[in-house]
Amino acid sequence: MRNIFKYITETQLWKSIFRHDYEDTPRNRALQILGNVFLHLHPARITRLGVKLKHTWCMGGITFFLFIILTVTGVLLMFYYRPTVADAYWDMKDLEFTVRFGLLLRNIHRWAGHLMVITIMLHMFRVFMTGSYKPPREFNWVLGVVLLVLTLLLSFTGYLLPWDQLGFWAITVGTNMARAAPVIGHEGPLGEIIGTTVYNDLRFALLGGSQVGANALLRAYVWHCIGIPIIAIVFMAVHFWRVRKDGGISGPL
Amino acid sequence: MENLLKIVSKPDNVAIIIMMVMVGFFVFFAFFQALKNDRKKASAKEEKNKLEKEKIHTWPYLARKEFLVAILVVVILLAWSIFVDAPLEEHSNPNLTPNPAKAPWYFLGLQELLVYFDPWIAGAIIPLLIIAGLMLIPYIDINPRGNGYFTFAERKFEILIFCFGFLVLWIFLIIIGVFMRGPGWLWFWPWQEWDPSRVVAEINVDLTQLIGVNSRSTPGFLIGGSVIILYFSVGMIMLYLYLRKKKPNLLHKLGLTRYLISSFLLWSMIGIAIKIIMKLTLNIKYIWVTPWFNI
Ligand code: HEM
């Protein structure tokens, strides 16, 4: 047995994939992190406090993990979903009744989305309570606020996609706010000065029309599945990079 | 009671119950740790800091925790998804408006503000102020203490303000929006049946009408405007004078720009709370009525 193992781990193929062996040495512990593109988001060594659950609550990590779950389940859902007025609702029904594990897939995606909104709020609360936005981490907090807004928008655009009464009216109520924006909303104050109407205001831009309809469904879909995730990934990459560049997880100076 | 059960067991509202439990727990946990740290003696703190600053290997000490947490999250999500199905109501119908029509739960705090403010404030100005205010926190909070650990004693004022915003103006308003608002966005206690035909005869008045001045007249316009402008300017000047007397060093370090921004944000937050109370107790609709906008 040992011989076989030894033979395998000494082949050129194995060595080309795994750059170090697995004996428990400090060097290998570091290489385990540095030699793995996913793990090397981490530093090889980290303060004792940074590892403690009671310090970070792992909330940022959970938020990121939920984002990954949402990406995987979201891509799977895209196989079954068409963003058109004629199909969208019935595709949801199909997911429920004909696709094997379709309902479970949809449930995971929905609850993970809700949970992510909760964990991101708690992550922000933790960062505030440990004062971790103070110098030198000011800018990472700003990036975090951008991520918070993006996360809310992700959840909001997804709400419309089932094309049922719940989503339809939630989006109608939500985008009615845009109608009232000063200057760029047609019901908001001061809109007259630049000639804002129902057909050119902020709400029209969001919905691609003056009502929630086929265009709004397509826009929500594209923003939800492609636009916002790409923007969020870019901001997350910078956010994680900054955690390290700003001196790692915060701690008493 | 039946109605309460109906609201609570709506699938999307399960998420809000989970949010309430988690927020409650973590607020408790944060203050628990903060107060515990504050009680520690300086020498004990120093010793602990030295130990905690020591570096250890990410593999396995952090990585294993992350994997465990990931597994736990998957287990919770799976259980949740097996026991509660995502909602799917009837096919959308633009001609059939549900009553009440509610935004997704995380925006219900803002929707609740529509009771107290015109949409351009509740839906545009306040969200912008929240986003800008959050982004500005690191730049207006110049207290260097409490950086990287839980404490309350070293930054009481900041923590109180933030918790007021987060817990009262955000979480609490969401809870009201979810559980207390029924048809017509009227107030229903959780044990009351939602009665769609209920009307409440509510006579809204504008502030100046309390002293007998028509809010739509020129004097009304002038008085209302002065109230708003005086509220902010007097508030900001009084706070300035107070700080100059009691904490001149702080004020000096803060500088004029930071002071103006932070006191404006502070008085806006307090103003929102005041307007909510005025509406609930005196039925005041507008403080300032102008031809272009109303506040
Ligand atoms: C998609 C959303 C987000 C993700 C995936 C994310 C992820 C993370 C992770 C993994 C960390 C490492 C420490 C930890 O787990 O707590 C972190 C730290 C941090 N995050 Fe976030 N975050 C997000 C949103 C936010 C928000 C909304 C804020 C604040 C407004 C924020 C501010 C910070 C700051 C200042 C740090 C450094 C904390 C320290 O050094 O103790 N992040 N983030």
Automatic annotation (TrEMBL), chain A:
Residues 19-252 form the Cytochrome b/b6 N-terminal region profile domain. It comes from marine sediment metagenome. Keywords: Membrane, Transmembrane, Transmembrane helix. One of its GO terms (biological process) is respiratory electron transport chain. SUPFAM superfamilies: Transmembrane di-heme cytochromes (SSF81342). The chain crosses the membrane at residues 57-81, 111-129, 141-161, 221-241. One of its GO terms (cellular component) is membrane. InterPro entries: Cyt_b/b6_N, Cytb/b6-like_sf, Di-haem_cyt_TM. One of its GO terms (molecular function) is oxidoreductase activity. The keyword Membrane applies. PROSITE patterns: CYTB_NTER (PS51002). The keyword Transmembrane applies. This is Cytochrome b/b6 N-terminal region profile domain-containing protein.
